Amino acid sequence: MPRQTSASTTSDNQESSRKAINVLVVDQDKSVGDQLLRCLGQTKVKLVQVDCISEAFKYLNKKPIDLAIIDSNLPDGSGLALAKRLRRGYVIHAIVMTDQPTLDCALEAIRVGAVDIIVKPFKPDEVKQRVDEAVVRLRADQKKEKRIKKLRQICKKLNHDRDEIASQVDILCNDLVIAYQELAQQVSLLTQTHEYTNLIRQELDLETLLRRTLEYILQKIGPTNAAIYLPASTEPEEYSLGGYVNYECNAESAEILLQHLADVLAPKMVETKWPMHFTDSGALEEWLGESFPYLSESHLLTFPCRHEDDTLAVVVLFRHHNQPFGSSAVHTCTSIAPLLAQSLAKVVNIYHRLAPLDDDDLSID
């Protein structure tokens, strides 16, 4: 059974204010513990003695210790081996006791991590000095470990704060990028609106208006097949070709395709208010309910020009999928659609004002 004894000082206020050192003595000689306490005198320690390695580990599994004083020869193994295990596995300072001090023993004690060697029989002053030195080293190591632990906690918090700040910076950067992109789009729309407005300002000739619109589209989007469909004067739900730019179609296929677009696609655009972008014939066929075999390898971009809920024109652009329409093309369509609708409305109003009246309009009841 472990034997527990203690000694404390009353003359040194600083020393007495400190927490007592828990010392485990491992020696089969039952009197060693009492001898050490007498040697330590006023040193503040709580001392427990066990007689073998197995008992030492049983005690360690129940209570922590600060310092171990171990006899080099124990009934169930080497005290030096125990000191090594305590130092590496439990981070416990150990002092080795021996009654046969040799250079080899001292070197081995240093190698296994022991902090000092005490020679038997004990010399009180020497024992006290060596234990006090071990306690000073222990206090310094404990203070160092406490500081390291605190630094690790600070580093952990700093790393967490750094990650949090980095995350916030990433979010802010993404927000700035999005805001810049949106601003750039708005500036682009304003610029294109201004350019197109200046191009068609005061233009009252329908043919010239459509030609300038097609030229502007090609200037902004690049070479493409482009057609502008206008509602028929007699049948509002029917559309006829108002202007066309042929980029890559032969004359025969272009005629068939343009008529198909007028009959099927243009009336469908009356139901929408925004540009429609199709990157494959399957999506276009699904939307229209009909197949356009001539556009099987093309990208198609179409938009309505609406004025006061009336669709005054439908613009259709298409070209080979190797030259797809990007977001800038959609922005161009978005910017010119209402302006073209306004100009067409102005032309229509002037046409109606200048058109001769029918006989029925001149009759008086």
Protein architecture, described:
The protein has eleven helices and 13 strands. With 365 residues, it is α/β, with parallel strands linked by helices. The relative contact order is 0.07. It has helices spanning 13-17, 32-40, 53-60, 79-89, 103-111, 124-200, 206-221, 251-268, 281-288, 327-354, 359-362; strands at residues 3-7, 21-26, 45-50, 67-71, 73-74, 77-78, 93-98, 116-119, 225-231, 239-245, 276-278, 298-307, 310-320. The strands form three sheets. It has a six-stranded mixed β-sheet with strand order 1-3-2-4-7-8, with helices on both faces. A hairpin with a 7-residue loop joins strand 9 (225-231) and strand 10. Helix 2 crosses helix 6, helix 6 (124-200) runs parallel beside helix 10 and helix 7 (206-221) runs antiparallel to helix 10. The chain is 53% helix and 20% strand. The protein has two domains: 3-149, Rossmann fold; 202-354, GAF domain (Beta-Lactamase).
